[in-house]
Amino acid sequence: MNSTPARHVLILGGTTEARRLAEELAGDPALRVTSSLAGRVAAPRLPVGQVRIGGFGGAEGMARWLHEHQVDALIDATHPFADTISSHAARAAADVHVPLLALRRPGWVPGPGDRWHSAGSLAEAARLLPDLGERIFLTTGRMGLATFAHLTRQWFLVRSVDAPEPPVPPRMEVILDRGPFTLEGEADLLRRHRIEVLVTKDSGAHATAPKLTAARAAALPVVIIRRPPAPQGIPVAETPSEAATWLRVTLA
């Protein structure tokens, strides 16, 4: 009889990849998986297995949690724009000497016919809009809408999972929805609302990519907000399967 205790894996989640990784690891008796969600979405899609919701209290709080719960490996599978939690994960893992992997889906790449304008931040995206159009489809989430609140000439269609809170642009309509989205649905949305510009973050998700194809077909300019730089020195996997392989090799 094998009495070796299961190795504890903490997944910093909230993404499709994090849920798929938790599902892939769930059947392994040698592993005990905990998924951590930030709690910013009112009704999150919960992964299989054990789940904790809420922050850690910075890098120090996360390091303390890793130590107290005897975590053997940490996988940062948060959103590519969740740079604060990724930075905390890197510091916490280093402090308590827990191996860390970043699970990051590849970013989007422009294709023939795309009219992309790169921006390094929401503020830079807002500065570009007056020269691009007046009817804006804003798909950057409900956080950060204050950055666009000073644009009084533009009309915004905002899509988010939960309702945004002020300050927000004065001329705005909100759609509460979450992906996956279809190409037909996105194309119809652009036509019905007479959209002139799409603003999005480079999340790289397949579930939300159809809006880019629809914008290309409609010859619309797209403002793409670049990802923040990832913490240096952290190994990266692009798929849940790659992350699972790294985990088993690391804990062998």
Q: What does this protein look like?
A:
This protein has 252 residues and is α/β, with parallel strands linked by helices. 28% of the residues lie in helices and 23% in strands. The strands form 2 sheets. It has a 6-stranded parallel sheet, with helices on both faces. Strands 6-11-10-7-8-9 form a 6-stranded parallel sheet. Helix 3 links the parallel strand 4 and strand 5. Helix 2 (58-68) packs across helix 3 (83-96) and helix 5 (183-192) crosses helix 6 (210-217). The longest helix has 14 residues, at 83-96. The protein is elongated. The two termini are 19 Å apart. The mean pLDDT is 94.
Briefly say what this structure is.
This protein is of the alpha/beta class and 252 residues long. The chain is built from seven helices and twelve strands.
